[in-house]
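Reply to dn_fold:

You asked what the input looked like. This is it:
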Amino acid sequence: MLPLLTVLFLISYGLMAMLVVEQGRTIDSQSYLIKELFRDSSELTGMKSNLFQKQRAQAQAQAEANAHSQAQAPSSQVAPRDNAKSNRNPGKLRRPAPLRPPRNISDVADERRALFSI
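and this is what came back:
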């Protein structure tokens, strides 16, 4: 019985060694693929960044060309200066605050309660 167990042990040990070797190969190939994907991702990010910078430079050049063409032809209109806030940040429009309904005095105690619904 002992020789049979010894043979089975050697066979199982050999299969286990083959499994470890194959897992090592798999891990190495996955590591290589991850590095390649990271490199490709870095290249893609760089290409997108360059494209964005080119588009931004092109838009700035076009805006400067438009400003230059408008500066050559003087405008006969005078800009109104009645609103001081709009002169500080002309590119940002302010939206009025949303109106809230008036509070009912009997609902004051209900504000502390938090209702959760699914």
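Residues 2-72 form the longest helix (71 residues).
Hope that clears it up.
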